[in-house]
Amino acid sequence: MNYEQKYKEALERAKKWRNAPNSDKIPTYANRVIEEIFPELKESEDERIVKCLLNYFHHVRYNGLDLKGTDVDEVITWLEKQREQNHADKVEPKFKVGDWISTTLQIVNVDINKELYWFNDGSYLPFADEEYLHLWTIKDAKDGDVLSYVTGEGDLWIMIYWSLYEPYKGHVHYHTLLVNEKFTNKGTCCIYIDNLRPATKEQRELLFQKLKESGYRWDEDKKEVIRYERFVSRTEG
């Protein structure tokens, strides 16, 4: 499944509803829900103030109110230019929610107003520092990293990565591989490695739980899968 395309389609649908004509608009609380799901659509404080002023001066012009020599049309034109400038100056984030970045963290929130990326470990990064990051690729993987892959048929692959198999593009070595609850230890596989991603917390827990149920455990120090009895005896000794 192309999650990036699905995200873009959902964002466009949200924009359509949020920017609908007043006669078609959904309730205000629903717009707040949309902005919570897609924070990039949330109106900034500057935009809110300009919008309020425009509403006021349009009201003044419509009702022919006298503001003691103030050129209302001139004010409206100026405010419209400010709104256009705000849109032009609006920071466009390089990454989006769901992206994995080179530090092996996943973006869980993009705060447009505060210009911050929030990650799945609770940390954050200002947009201004995004130049130091790039989208995660298999070249960022390190020996011992837990990676996952969902096939087009919906099969879930979770592996403890070992290294790239350089002679053959698209091949990786793994310490262990779990495919639909079936384990393979120490091997090489050929898959769409560009679709490999760091495993989520739930996927990691699933892998290690299944390892334990099979009588094995991952030894982080030695970078190998060992029988649970060996691990216990070595740590107790």
Question: Keyphrases for this structure?
Answer:
11 strands, 6 helices, four-stranded antiparallel sheet, alpha+beta, 36% helix, SH3 type barrels, elongated
Description:
- This protein has 3 domains: 3-89, no CATH class; 100-132, no CATH class; 138-236, SH3 type barrels, CATH 2.30.30.
- The chain is built from 6 helices and 11 strands.
- It has helices at residues 3-18, 28-37, 45-63, 72-89, 201-213, 228-236, and strands at residues 100-101, 105-111, 116-119, 124-126, 146-150, 156-164, 171-179, 182-190, 197-198, 216-219, 224-227.
- Helix 3 packs antiparallel against helix 4 (72-89).
- The chain is elongated and about 90 Å long.
- The mean pLDDT is 78.
